[in-house]
Amino acid sequence: MQPLIWLGILALLLVVEAITAGLTTIWFAGGALAAAIACYAGANLTVQILLFLCVSLVLLIFTRPLAMKYFNKETIQTNANSLIGKKAVVIQEIDNLAQTGQVRINDIEWTARSADDEKISEGTVVTIEEIRGVKLIVKQNKED
């Protein structure tokens, strides 16, 4: 009868995973399957629980990062994060010391600062390296 309890836990975890689809309980379902097999083989409850916890933890630690990388591969960046790596045009000289500078990208003007503290003149094409608050941190393209 005890293997049925583990199989019930396995089924419940799989249902929760199917509902959430966020890779949250699948690792514990693997642990429940291992515990059910151990129970069927005649292991005592302590061994079953330890096996459940160890297998779940190992699956969580070693396979979750790979699974998240695989599933998030096609995630499209939205909003401001989509600007990172794109090119923009300087419309006001960028001078970090004077705290001046603006760039235009997608017909929107942004306050900008240089990633390497160099002055960047108006009309220069730059690459957006990161976003800090409401400022774009840019780097001058070397081929320009």
Keywords:
5 strands, alpha+beta, 5-stranded mixed β-barrel, 144 residues, rod-shaped, 3 helices, single chain
Please explain how this structure is put together.
- With 144 residues, this protein is of the alpha+beta class.
- The chain is built from three helices and five strands, in the order H-H-H-E-E-E-E-E.
- Strand 2 and strand 3 (108-114) form a beta hairpin.
- The mean pLDDT is 86.
Structural class of the helix and strand makeup? alpha+beta
The number of helices is 3
List the strand order in the largest sheet: 1-2-3-5-4
Residue share in helices?
Answer: 40-55%
Distance between the termini: 73 Å
The major pleated sheet works out as: 5 strands, mixed, barrel
Q: Which regions contain 5 or more consecutive residues with pLDDT less than 50?
A: none
Task: Give average pLDDT, whole number.
Answer: 86
Assembly category: single chain
Radius of gyration: 26 Å
What coarse outline follows from CA principal-axis ratios?
A: rod-shaped
**Strand segment count:** 5
Write the element-wise H/E pattern from the N-terminal end onward.
HHHEEEEE
